[in-house]
């Protein structure tokens, strides 16, 4: 069973940076596309960024140029480097893993990111 554990959230001022990490276990990491989603209060969960097993990335427009998703297949970990954070980036950030073979999805427990002055 795939398990995902996020870390790295916290409180940061506008313009600041955070790096989220997601540790993957329970299967073969490179056979999964990984993604970061976020959910702000009273809003639907939205996709932030994805990365395939071979490193192809995709971002929503609002984070392009500020966020970078990456993965270390040797450490079974995916990262989200968040720079130039804005108030509207405040949300619970969730790690997602999608099997490349059968499209099964797995979620982490979420980590809170709060951008506040």
Account of the 3D structure:
By secondary structure, this protein is mostly beta strands. The protein is 0% helix and 53% strand. It is built from no helices and 11 strands. The strands form 2 sheets. Strands 2, 4, 5, 6, 9, 10 and 11 form a 7-stranded mixed β-sheet that branches. It has a 4-stranded antiparallel β-sheet with strand order 1-3-8-7, with no helix packed on it. A hairpin with a 4-residue loop joins strand 7 and strand 8. It is globular, with a radius of gyration of 13 Å. The N and C termini lie far apart (40 Å).
Which tags fit this structure?
117 residues, 11 strands, mainly beta, four-stranded antiparallel β-sheet, seven-stranded mixed β-sheet
What count of helical segments does DSSP give?
A: 0
The count of strands amounts to 11
How is the biggest beta sheet arranged? Answer: 7 strands, mixed
List segments where confidence is low: pLDDT < 50 over at least 5 consecutive residues: none
Strand-and-helix sequence, N→C? Answer: EEEEEEEEEEE
Shape: globular
Which structural class is indicated by helix and strand composition? mainly beta
Oligomer: single chain
**Rg, alpha carbons:** 13 Å
**Span from first to last CA?**
40 Å
Q: Roughly what fraction of the amino acids lie in strands?
A: over 45%
- Helical fraction equals under 10%
């Amino acid at each position: 069973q795939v398990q995902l554990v996020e870390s790295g959230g916290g409180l940061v001022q506008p313009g600041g940076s955070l790096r989220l990490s997601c540790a993957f276990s329970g299967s073969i990491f490179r056979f999964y596309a990984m993604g970061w989603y976020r959910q702000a209060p009273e809003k639907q969960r939205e996709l932030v960024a994805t990365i395939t097993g071979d490193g192809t990335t995709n971002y929503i427009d609002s984070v392009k140029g500020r966020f970078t998703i990456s993965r270390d297949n040797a450490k079974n970990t995916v990262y989200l480097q968040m720079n130039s954070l804005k108030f509207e980036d405040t949300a619970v950030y969730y790690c997602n893993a999608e099997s490349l073979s059968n499209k099964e999805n797995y979620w982490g427990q979420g980590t809170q990111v709060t951008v506040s002055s």
